[in-house]
Amino acid sequence: MSDASPPATVAAAGPSAASAPQADVAPPGPAAAPASVPFELDGQPAEALPGETILQAAERHGARIPHLCYTEGMRPDGNCRACVCEIEGERVLAPSCWRKPAPGMKVRTASERARAAQRMVLELLLADAPENGADAYRPDSELALWAAELGVTGARFPRRAQPAADLSHPAIAVHLDACIQCTRCVRACREVQVNDVIGYADRGHYARIVFDLEDPMGASTCVACGECVQACPTGALLPRGVWEAGATAAVRFVPAWDPSFRENA
Ligand code: SF4
Ligand code: FES
Question: What is the full per-residue pLDDT of the chain (265 aa) written as tens digits?
Fold first, then answer.
């Protein structure tokens, strides 16, 4: 066919196509942006951006909800329950890091019931903390900071037997007595760095963080990228040098997904 030949579709259209109704033809251009979600937050009108969880929307509106297994930039896992909130009409409290607002939902993040549950979670976690406190290995431990903010000063429960320190790795000190099993290190290792060295073994009382097939960290396939150290909210995983300095060195913990980290690199 020469270049001068009309395209077959034009030739086939003819006058009947020109007079066809146009109502069903979608207009070209970008799809409409999803709408934000209006809901009530602690008695005040609030809006969640598309895809936002209650926790993300609440933080944007200035609410303070403790959270440990969730951190910005990481997918929520909903395992620690420090972030529970009350939703009107629902029997059980909901993890705000996981749950998304629905139109008209009434959420209480700091009601007596929600705060009592949040404090109980922190107290239970503190009960297993190292004997010298939740900030034993890291002065800015997220657990210690949230406990202080919510006025949880100690635990009424006995401390369970805790694992010994693992100092087999030249770059990372492992103190799983400070581990709250939030699995942020697992997600950092598996989903952010795709190294898959850190795992979560067993269930219930026996659940624990392991490296490869429960190897000492220094004998595992760890490449010392440090992603787990950045993710850990308690100091259970620390740079070896920081731990040797007595956990008092000024360290800026910056997640690798923090844009300022990349800008300043
Ligand atoms: S080692 Fe740290 S990041 Fe990993 S589960 Fe324990 S507390 Fe969470
Ligand atoms: S931060 Fe929501 S369950 Fe842990």
Answer: 334 343 333 333 333 444 444 556 656 677 777 789 999 999 999 999 999 999 999 999 999 999 999 999 999 999 999 999 999 999 999 999 999 999 999 999 999 999 999 999 999 999 999 988 888 999 889 999 999 999 999 999 999 999 999 999 999 999 999 999 999 999 999 999 999 999 999 999 899 999 999 999 999 999 999 999 999 999 999 999 888 887 544 444 444 444 444 444 3
Say if ligand 1 is within 6 A of residue 179 CB: yes
Domain boundaries, given as residue ranges, for the chain: 37-127, 132-154+161-256
The answer to pTM > 0.85 is: no
User: Considering only CA atoms, which residue is closest to atom 8 of ligand 1?
Assistant: 182
Q: Is 232 in the pocket of ligand 1 (CB under 6 A)?
A: yes
Query: Ligand 1 atom closest to Cα of 183?
Result: 5
Q: How far is the CA of 124 from the centre of ligand 1 (A)?
A: 16
Six token digits for residue 14: 């003819």
Q: What kind of fold does domain 132-154+161-256 have according to CATH?
A: Alpha-Beta Plaits (3.30.70)
CA–CA separation, 84 and 97 (whole Å): 8
Type of residue found at 176: L
Do strands 237-239 and 172-174 pair parallel, antiparallel, or not at all (unpaired)? antiparallel
Whether the CB of 99 sits within 6 Å of ligand 2: no
Query: Which residue, chain included where needed, has tokens 């490449």?
Result: 223
**Among 235, 19, 16, residue whose Cα is nearest residue 141:** 235
